[in-house]
Amino acid sequence: MQFLFPAFLFALASLAIPIIIHLFYFRRYKKVYFTNVRFLREVKEETSARSKLRNWLVLLMRCLAIAFLIFAFAQPFIPSGSDVTQGSKDVSIFIDNSFSMGALSQDVPLIEEAKRRARDIVEAYSVDDRFQILTNDLEGRHQRLVSQEEALAFIDEIALSPAVKPLNQVLVRQEQALDQGSNDTKVAFWISDFQKNITVWETPKDTALQLNLIPLQAVQERNISIDSVWMESPVPMLNQPNNLIIQVKNWTDEEAENVRLTLRHEGQVMPVGTLTIPPQTAVKDTISMQLPHVGWHEAELQITDYPIQFDDLYHIALQVAEEVRVAIINASAENEFLTAAFKSIPYFQAENLTSQNLDYSRLPGYQFIVLNELPDLSSGLSFALKEYVENGGNVLVFPSAGASLESYNSFFAAFPANPFTAFEKGERTVGQVNTEEFIFRDVFENKSANLRLPVTQGNFFWNRSGTAAEETLMSYRDGSSFLAKYQVGQGHLYVIAAPLSEEYNNMTRNAEIFIPMLYKMAISSGRGQKIAYTIGDDEVISADVPVLGSEVVYQLDGPGIEFIPAQRITGSRLFLTVSNEIPTAGIYRLKRQQGEETLAEFAFNYNRKESNLAYYTLSELRELVGDRASIIEAAARANFEVIIGERNQGVVLWRWCLVFALLFLAIEQLLLRFWRV
Fold it and tell me: Which is nearest to 662 in space by CA: 3, 72, 59, 77?
């Protein structure tokens, strides 16, 4: 047996106090008056012997009580197999508070079980030890060592959070905090369900660090989540069927049946249907959504699932513009067929511009730009269009038959796109349309029907010796491209091999091709607002705002929170950095100040990283960490204060010392109360 604080044993000298008191008490004499002295000697001898025995037993009980009380303060223990570290310690405890910890462990959520075990760990150490309490939130106040009382208060405040941090990042924060401590003994604990997607193992740099893993396991490992939602068309249209694509994933090994899917929009909850999802599989479903007015629309998609529910709801926010602005840049006269085509499309506003007096600063205000047979492209226009496309705009090029190959190919090289070779006259017929690509997808009811495809009397050819990533949307019968697409940044460059004029091209006469092509190219803009963002991702969100000067401050209002994010204004574009300031999923509205009209809306959803409930088993954890960390396995109702105490000190005996001290005091009281002399 050993003592954790052997210095307390010097207090055993205090045992002399009751001994001295008893000795002085025994020397006291008491006069007894007795009328008949014949029986005096016999009675006196018998009474003195019984009194002396009782007093010696009382003295023994008091000495034993004091001795065991001193032993309790010295904290005796029977050493375990490993050496016991004496002195004060620095202890760091990570409590996984991600959403997966909301799963049930018997009758309580895992997060409550984790907090209970964290309290037991803190209470198993001395009041002189220092503690760090850490969660996935990595709060600033959790980056330091605190007292035992503060640590217990921090544990009580812990709640589920959308934050998800890999465990190797957690270990770095623990090592940093422990390095700041003054004690030589460093101990770290991880209390988690150890999901495979967050358990990134890295060996601790500090070889003296004692790392302990405490795995928790849910009773039921079942989860279905809305993985993602996106619009089939990049631009929402008014009073048109706008298709939403929703992907729902079954993370379990059993088939999920009758998963109900609902859509909430315009204050109404609309049942969409039920899904059957095979195990470990994601399925897609399409929802048609009508947008009856211009402006912002909020919607929620929801499925029924239990017990993990944070990923069952998906928020989206989208804007229906009053009009789609189109710029047609002409060399001189406008093309009447091109202008008429845009006028025939509802909500489109086309404006004819001339290339000679073009204001390049106005180009970002258009969703679609058409270059109509320009003989050459100036360097200024080429640079402005390249920047426009990279930022999400779409450009369609109809070349002029007498175009300057040098200026055009210089323009193409900046994207890059395949250059033109010489213009050749001759009749050629378009033979194939790529109906799998967005521009012509769902345009024709019967893809096998004989379509009237364009016929050209002259066209340019492409030199495909370069590395440009060209996608052919329409091709001639010999396989050469008629309409090519290049994705550049967030936007697209479309190039047609033939001029638009009827002298060389009859496309304007083929309305079944020409009108849908222009419409889909205009709405395929990649510059439209994302319909949803993910909490915790370091994204920069943007919105178009009125030009009011750089001194204007914008704020975001969301569910139960209002804050001013980091912001930067470039022209009429506002860029916001929200970092970790978004705490709750929902719709956040951009305003200049409280009470003003909403300028933009952003939908934020919880990270789906926690949806995959694949955990490391005990054997897998042991294989992963090797001998560099200890895995503490205990029943759900085990007293962790005892377990940690025994791991630190062996078999702890101070509680038994207190029991014996109280027992001896009780025996003393019984002797004094019932042994009459």
Answer: 72
